[in-house]
Write a structure and sequence with these properties.
This protein is an alpha/beta fold. The chain has 3 domains: 2-18 and 31-355, Alkaline Phosphatase, subunit A; 367-435, Arylsulfatase, C-terminal domain (2-Layer Sandwich); 442-619, Jelly Rolls (Sandwich). It contains 13 helices and 27 strands. The protein has helices at 2-19, 53-60, 74-83, 87-90, 109-115, 181-199, 220-223, 231-256, 324-332, 348-351, 415-432, 469-473, 479-485; strands spanning 28-34, 63-65, 68-69, 119-124, 143-146, 167-170, 173-176, 203-208, 263-269, 300-303, 313-315, 319-320, 365-369, 382-386, 389-392, 396-399, 442-444, 451-455, 509-513, 517-524, 561-568, 571-577, 585-591, 594-598, 601-604, 609-611, 614-619. The strands form 6 sheets. The protein has a 10-stranded mixed beta sheet with strand order 7-6-5-4-8-1-9-10-2-11, with helices on both faces. A 4-stranded antiparallel beta sheet has the order 13-14-15-16, with helices on one face. A hairpin with a 4-residue loop joins strand 25 (601-604) and strand 26 (609-611).
Length: 621
């Protein structure tokens, strides 16, 4: 795989000088993707409550796909969207547990367009890895402004971020910002657009938002737009209307700069609704995480005046996120390097109002699934799709044209069709299954990332890891804390456990030492920016507007650790006492080149252990 990546990188570098002078004919691309907003969470798709006037207008001026599918959760969708490969092929079939990092051998559309002479910018949510070689700046994006992990306030994000007045990563540096996170990410994208307009350079602005993913927070003026609704709906729809206003402002900027005519403006979302089904779900069964239609059929709009994509043009042909990269290469004229093959195809004929679609493969079969486990399981929450037919989990067959709510199982009446779709899935699985054992490893000792910060979000284990900062505050995984603070299930309060079982740490970070030698491994209960003693409790932070309690508004539980132990490849290789004032315990170890399982822990006098939620690894000279 590494050889393949090197060869593709060489091919990309050879393309750069060929296309550097062809900027004038290339369309700019603004690609907006939201998080947890379903097909029914828009006014133009029929929602009677949500206010989306700017997106409604965009829909009247765009080509629209009505049978476009993604993965039922966010990281998997992003992996397919950016590579043109099935999510399970990319290594990204989960959102945590080390399974949300995009394999190093994958080539992204950012790299391909950058090689074609584009300025490339990424703004908001990446969620495909926070360390080398998985960061957006490692995958073709020259300008990066983002939060950490899968959302503001998640474990890899900067400590105590909570939607308003946060700190973010700008090209690897931590910078402070004022305002609501969605407004900040759009403002940075607009700055990037202005800079490229001044430089007369074509650009790809990938605006990937964390909103309206929970926790549910929004500026008060947007909450006030939905009187009479529940706090959850008011917050969720308030975030969507805020996105809508920013879409309108960005389109106005393109007109102001004289760029609107030759800019391809795309709007879509990453999975089914997380919250809005309580109001409207467009008649679909299922929501985020589901294998049924409501989990993965999402809106898709494409507006490009120079190509004549300015009037409502609706296409109802089945297509998938794996089609996006081939389509963008087709539309921009960017070549595909030799040796790179896509699982998707260009859907330009579906988007172009002038296309006749005479050669379109109407009997195409596509697959989406919701794994969310450490290792993929065959037929787990799987939809095999062909035309209007949906084979669900291998034992349910629906015709969604006649039965959009997927209530009547036709498998007994259509055995031949089900068998044909099942046979396709069997071959699909057999091709991908050998790749599942290729673990995504975080590099240690690489010159492009000499100091590596690890977080519990990426622990590889069977159970959910502590993926947000509330889990860190309540000491998730530590048995005495769990008895009073609740289990790690959601961002909300959960039923406490009273289990007397002592806690042990079952997870590890999968790391790859690229340069053998001496390393400092500094282990922490709280992150570096908190600068707080390992054994000390932490007071709650301020709440912010919205239906949810901010992650930071929970008190931080004390862990009475007496010892820190460095565990490598299942062996305890060093221990040191934890003193009252220690914010970290630093170990020095000689690491051999290659793959390792790193799992430092804290232990109490009673024998309980908990994984070090944070570790900073530095290669020593």
């Amino acid at each position: 795989m590494l050889i393949r990546r090197v060869l593709l990188s060489v091919a990309l570098s050879l393309l750069l000088p060929v296309f550097a002078s062809a900027a004038a004919t290339k369309p700019n691309i603004v690609f907006v993707i939201t998080d947890d907003q379903g097909y029914g969470d828009l006014s133009f798709t029929g929602n009677p409550v949500v206010k989306t006037p700017h997106l409604d207008r965009l829909a009247t001026e765009s080509s629209q796909l009505k049978d476009y599918h993604v993965a039922p959760t966010c990281s998997p969708t992003r992996s397919a969207l950016l590579t043109g490969h099935w999510t399970n092929r990319t290594g990204v079939w989960h959102t945590v547990n080390g399974r949300s990092m995009l394999r190093e051998n994958e080539i992204t559309v950012g790299q391909l367009l950058k090689a074609h002479g584009y300025a490339t910018g990424m703004f908001g949510k990446w969620h495909l890895g926070d360390n080398y070689p998985y960061r957006p700046e490692d995958r073709g994006f020259a300008e990066v402004y983002r939060h950490g992990g899968g959302g503001v306030g998640q474990t890899p994000d900067l400590w105590d971020n909570s939607y308003f007045d946060g700190s973010y990563f700008h090209n690897g540096r931590v910078v402070a910002a004022k305002g609501f996170c969605t407004d900040v990410f759009f403002a940075e994208a607009q700055r990037f657009i202005r800079e490229q307009a001044a430089a007369r350079k074509p650009f790809f602005a990938y605006i990937a938002l964390n909103a309206p993913h929970g926790p549910l927070h929004a500026p008060q003026k947007y909450l006030d737009l939905y009187p009479g609704q529940t706090p959850e709906i008011a917050s969720f729809f308030g975030m969507i209307t805020n996105i809508d206003d920013n879409v309108g402002a960005t389109r106005a900027l393109l007109r102001e700069l004289g760029l609107a005519d030759n800019t391809l403006f795309i709007f879509t979302t990453d999975n089914g609704t997380a919250t809005g089904d309580k109001i409207f779900n467009a008649g679909m069964r299922g929501k985020k995480g589901s294998e049924y239609e409501g989990g993965h059929r999402v809106p898709f709009l494409a507006h490009w005046p120079a190509a004549g994509w300015t009037k409502p043009h609706v296409n109802e042909t089945l297509c998938h996120a794996v089609d996006i990269v081939p389509t963008l290469l087709d539309l921009t004229g960017a070549p595909t390097p030799a040796g790179l093959r896509f699982d998707g195809i260009s859907i330009r004929p579906l988007l172009d109002p002038a296309s006749k679609n005479t050669a379109w493969p109407h009997e195409r079969i596509l697959v989406t699934d919701s794994q969310r486990v450490r290792d993929p399981i065959k037929w787990k929450q799987t939809a095999v799709m062909s035309g209007p037919w949906r084979l669900i989990n291998g034992n349910e067959l629906y015709d969604i044209k006649a039965d959009p709510g997927q209530q009547r199982n036709l498998i007994a009446e259509q055995p031949a069709r089900a068998a044909r779709m099942s046979a396709f899935y069997d071959a699909w699985w057999a091709e991908l299954e050998p790749t599942f054992a290729q673990t995504t490893e975080i590099y240690l000792g690489h010159p492009d990332h000499p100091v590596v910060s690890l977080t519990g979000h990426d622990w590889i284990q069977e159970a959910l890891p502590p993926w947000n900062q509330q889990h860190i505050r309540v000491a998730d995984g530590f048995a005495p804390a769990r008895a009073t603070a609740g289990k790690n299930k959601t961002a909300k309060n959960t039923t406490p456990s009273t289990s007397p079982t002592k806690s042990t740490h079952a997870g590890h970070w999968a790391v790859k030492v690229v340069a053998a030698g001496r390393y400092e491994i500094s282990v922490r209960r709280w992150p570096v920016e908190a600068n707080h003693p390992i054994t000390a409790a932490l007071p709650p932070g301020a709440n912010v507007p919205g239906a949810s309690v901010a992650f930071r508004a929970r008190p931080g539980v004390a862990i009475p650790a007496t010892t820190a132990t460095l565990r490598l490849d299942g062996r305890d290789i060093a221990s040191a006492p934890v003193r009252a004032a220690d914010t970290a315990v630093a170990f020095t170890a000689t690491l051999t080149a290659g793959s390792h399982r790193l799992a430092p822990v804290f232990l109490t006098a009673d024998g309980d252990e908990v994984g070090a939620y944070y570790a900073v690894v530095t290669k020593l000279r």
